[in-house]
Amino acid sequence: MDPFIPFRGSQALKRGAVTRSELRTRYRAVFRDVYVAGDAELTAATKARAAWLSTGATLAGLSAAAVLGTKWLDVAAPAEIIRADRHAQPGIVSHSYALADDEVHAVRGMRVTTAARTAFDIGCGLPLAKALPILDALLNATGIKPTDVAALADRHHGARGIRRLRAALELADGGAESPQETRLRLQLVRAGLPKPETQIEFRDLHIRVDLGWREWKVAVEYDGIQHWDNSYQRSWDIERIALLEAAGWIVIRVSAEMLSRRPDVIVERVQAKLTERGAYARIPGAFAYLGPTLAAHWENTTQSCRQPLADEGESASRWSSARVGATPSRTVSAAASETSACPSTISE
């Protein structure tokens, strides 16, 4: 018995693998009759398996995502299961919706919703800004595409949260390799910039950038802590940026501090570089870049949040198509601030 893997306490006692005293002093209960070693790290995947052992129910939502290999999940979030009985012990959320036969499968002996169904449930059940990093990570871990999930959305077209799901699918991208990269992409898109491509590869240079626009040769790189603490990484960063610039690319680097405290600076810098390269966007009509569902969603939900211009007669021309960086009355950054202030937009 591996004490770091969840196990049924009653079965371990029956086999004589532990005594009641040992179970009480050396192990900790995760859920009813399920234990792990007292010093074991409790991950989202561990918690999911513990919930399955305790209930025998189908794993769904974040628990299914964890079992499917999704990274960066919040271990403090409750485990999620599907069964007829909605009542559940503390730390577990029980759903009672029906599943089609092709929406569930077995993973390491556990009954788990498929990757597409898992993405469907997360996209319908969580606010878009919270769902998107998880959807990106799930797509990255499983290799499914937004179109796979969209097929389920068509099947369950009347489900609660379906419009929110479709909006998320238009932004979801399995190329993101961290929640911060997802949030960076989201910040740029909701500010009215064209949707960037993720993980652009330069095979001849053996380089890959987080996101950017091939058409205008503009790249944006998120620098995590390893880029500042690791001397080898720092040296390679200097070299790779020199190689990219030699190839005609502009690189904008973003730190965690900038993303959390100065997102407007990021938008302004990227906006300026795109302008230099001849890129165009609409302010705030850049919603057109996001696909029909999300564009319609934002056009409707942000309408009430837009402040009237000083001269209402100028509203049509000032809010019409404008070159990125054009500032007759509002910059892209201002548009980003207004949309993020609206409770119906993507901001958390």
Task: Give the helices and strands, then pairings.
Blueprint: E1 7-8, H1 9-15, H2 20-25, E2 27-31, E3 34-37, H3 44-55, E4 58-59, H4 61-67, E5 79-82, E6 92-95, E7 104-107, E8 110-113, H5 115-125, H6 128-142, H7 146-155, H8 162-171, H9 179-190, E9 197-202, E10 207-213, E11 218-223, H10 226-229, H11 231-246, E12 250-255, H12 256-261, H13 263-276, E13 280-282, H14 292-301, H15 315-318, E14 321-323, H16 332-341
Parallel strand pairs: 5-6, 11-12
Antiparallel strand pairs: 1-3, 2-3, 4-5, 7-8, 9-10, 10-11, 13-14
Helix pairs in contact: 3-4, 4-5, 5-6, 5-7, 5-8, 6-8, 6-9, 7-8, 8-14, 13-16
Description:
This protein has helices at 9-15, 20-25, 44-55, 61-67, 115-125, 128-142, 146-155, 162-171, 179-190, 226-229, 231-246, 256-261, 263-276, 292-301, 315-318, 332-341; strands at residues 7-8, 27-31, 34-37, 58-59, 79-82, 92-95, 104-107, 110-113, 197-202, 207-213, 218-223, 250-255, 280-282, 321-323. It has 348 residues and is α+β, with helices and mostly antiparallel strands. The protein folds into 3 domains: 1-41, no CATH class; 42-171, no CATH class; 179-341, VSR Endonuclease (Endonuclease, Chain A, 3-Layer(aba) Sandwich), CATH 3.40.960.10. It has a 4-stranded mixed beta sheet with strand order 9-10-11-12, with helices on both faces. It has a 3-stranded antiparallel beta sheet with strand order 1-3-2. Strands 4-5-6 form a 3-stranded mixed beta sheet. A hairpin with a 4-residue loop joins strand 9 and strand 10. Helix 4 runs antiparallel to helix 5 (115-125) and helix 8 crosses helix 14 (292-301). The two termini are 43 Å apart. Residues 281-290 and 301-348 have low confidence and may be disordered.
